[in-house]
Amino acid sequence: MQRTEIESLLSQAEKRFEQEPKLIEIPSGRVIFVGDTHGDIEATRSVVERYLKPENTLVFLGDYVDRGSASAENLHTLLTLKLEYPENLFLLMGNHEGQKAMRFHPADFWQRLDDESFEWYAEVLSKLPLAVSTPNGIVAVHGALPGVQTLSELSAIFVGSELWQQITWGDWREEPGGYLGEGLMSGRPQFGQGWFEEIMARLGKNVLIRSHQPDASPVMFSGRCLTIFTSSAYRSVVSGRTIAIADLSREVRTVDDLVMERV
After folding, report:
1. DSSP states along 170-236
2. CATH number for the domain including 126?
3. C-beta separation of 31 from 92 below 8 A
4. pTM greater than the 0.90 cutoff
5. Could you tell me the residue range of the domain that residue 32 belongs to?
6. What proportion of the chain, given as a percentage, has pLDDT over 90?
7. Which of 32, 74, 154, 263 could join 51 via S-S bond, C-beta 3.0 to 4.6 A?
8. pLDDT category, 43, cuts 50, 70, 90?
């Protein structure tokens, strides 16, 4: 895309995101949850071709750039689709979209930008929503659950705050305890089963769907926490490019109530 085209796309996308709350509530239909795509344009195209239909809502769980070879194309494609199908496609914020507040590595997409372009992208992506809620028991975020009392508090989380770092940067460890400190190598906040069960009870949800953590077990906490990836960037993820499908007419109590497919 030419620079003027990119500027126009970002301007339109920013206006769209400003109209959306930080917590997206999806009332009915089928929801297709898509994990990190990380510059994997083939994965994004496959998902869109197979699942972008009037009866479906696509929820991408963040991390659209870096690690992959087509970060700009992947992001531009998703932003264009968002403008074309604003009620059928939602883009949550991952840590790789949070450069306005936090610097991290790898950041190959961001490092290729000049200063002005960096500011454009960082400002627009800082306005992405943070979470999705469904009436049949699902909450979806990029990383871990923030320490809030109610679902409504998710809408008040601002970029750069401690709660924002929990939701975009946090990891789960399948062991007892609440907050377990920062990872020695990653610096990410770590949370245990006690934190998971307490926050899920506060929110009144049964299952968390997220991405972000390639070394996590796909299913944790007695089948209530699902980690998916939809990118070839993580060669260590044995499940391959995976999506999760939820029928909102049926209650979801565990991961077994979801349909898992590869793309």
Report:
1. -EE-SSS-SEEEE-TTT--EEE-HHHHHHHHHHHT-SEEEE-S-TTS-SEETTTTEEE-B--TT-TT
2. 3.60.21.10
3. no
4. yes
5. 3-262
6. 89
7. 32
8. very high
